[in-house]
Design brief:
about 375 residues
Length: about 375
């Protein structure tokens, strides 16, 4: 497979859009209510050591991606078995994000259109992007991130007259238990999902670039989510917020400047599409890279279309309805994702550090 290069600016753009992904629309509040911003800060703090581990793996394995690392450390058989689990996780995560969009389309935007239609359109767009290469995805992400930030800032300014600051009080009214529970959920969704980015580390230019990408993605993505949390909370209040499937859309729909600037919630829907496009494309790219590595294919492009269609099909039947989707996202996922986001990377890092120390000892021995 030819070497593809992803400059740090484009890598950061992908990481930021990947992190904010579904969080822009699905929302992040659970039981913490008006203290959701505290849960977010805790989740970001918990993510810092994880980002150090991910960045350290890039230093220990320069020029390799996640699947190269697993096979190098655990051998051809065990390494490929673990690689298959990450291929599944990438496919499953992409399908989950597609289904988020499908449910939004069926519930809010395109109520008379079958869910499979908009998901197939986005899926085929992602197939075309991934087939074109990671550089195309990087250039797209750099432009779309700028567009996303501009629209978010505009929406934030227009929403200020609708803010009701009493919604922020009282802080910690439900105690620490729901806050910590929501923080755990935020740790796995969306911050821990950046483990998918390990699949493209081979495309990063230098050893120190991974740390810059991961921490920039964490801070910028977390900052964007924080802004959206405060906007939704100040407009809707904690009680209404906890009862909605797509709180950001409802919050923006209440923005009304005079009698001439109304119904601007469509702009927030566009942001949702741009972010999920990047997220699904990265998941599809990593899954394709993994399949090519495990089965020793000459190019990942030979399986992009098949995996993309499989992802769309999986998204179509993965849930029975929107309530099951919501329950999985806020309850089951935080347990399901931990092995992929924490346990396997930690094990890989520990084994790699032991091997690296033994190699140094052998080199220094007379």
């Amino acid at each position: 497979m030819n070497k593809e290069i992803l400059p740090s600016g484009q890598s950061i753009s992908i990481a930021v859009l990947f992190i904010i992904g579904s969080s822009l629309f699905m929302g992040v509040t659970g039981r913490s209510g008006n203290s959701a911003w505290i849960s977010l800060l805790i989740a970001m703090s918990l993510s810092v050591p994880l980002m150090f581990v991910y960045a350290r793996l890039h230093v220990l394995f320069p020029g390799k991606n996640l699947f190269d690392m697993l096979i190098a450390m655990f051998g051809g058989i065990a390494g490929r078995i673990i690689s298959c689990t990450y291929i599944w996780y990438a496919l499953h995560l992409g399908a989950l994000v597609l289904r988020n969009f499908g449910e939004f389309s069926e519930t809010v935007a395109l109520t008379e259109t079958p869910m499979i239609a908009p998901m197939l359109c986005i899926g085929l767009l992602c197939v075309w992007t991934v087939y074109s290469g990671i550089e195309v995805l990087g250039r797209s992400a750099k432009f779309l991130l700028l567009f996303t930030i501009m629209i978010l800032l505009l929406l934030q300014i227009l929403a200020i007259p609708k803010f009701e600051y009493h919604h922020l009080k009282p802080v910690l009214d439900s105690g620490w238990s729901p806050i910590l529970a929501d923080a755990m959920g935020l740790f796995t969704f969306p911050f821990g999902e950046i483990v998918i980015f390990l699949g493209v580390l081979r495309a990063l230019p230098g050893k120190g670039s991974a740390k810059k990408v991961f921490f920039s993605g964490l801070l910028m993505g977390g900052g964007v989510i924080m802004v959206v949390i405060f906007r939704n909370l100040l407009i809707l209040g904690p009680d209404i917020l906890s009862s909605l499937y797509f709180p950001a859309y409802v919050a923006v729909s209440r923005i009304n400047v005079g009698d001439f600037l109304t119904r601007i919630e469509g702009s927030s829907a566009i942001l949702f599409v741009t972010a999920l496009y990047i997220k699904v494309s990265l998941c599809l790219y990593v899954a394709s890279i993994g399949v090519a590595k495990v089965f020793k294919l000459k190019s990942y492009r030979s399986v992009v279309l098949q995996l993309g269609l499989l992802m769309v099909y999986l998204a179509d039947f993965i849930y029975q309805d929107i309530m099951q989707m919501q329950n999985f996202a806020y309850h089951t996922y935080k347990i399901y994702a931990l092995p992929f986001q924490v346990f396997f990377p930690l094990l890989l890092w520990i084994v790699a550090e032991i091997v690296a120390s033994k190699v140094k000892q052998n080199e220094s021995a007379p």
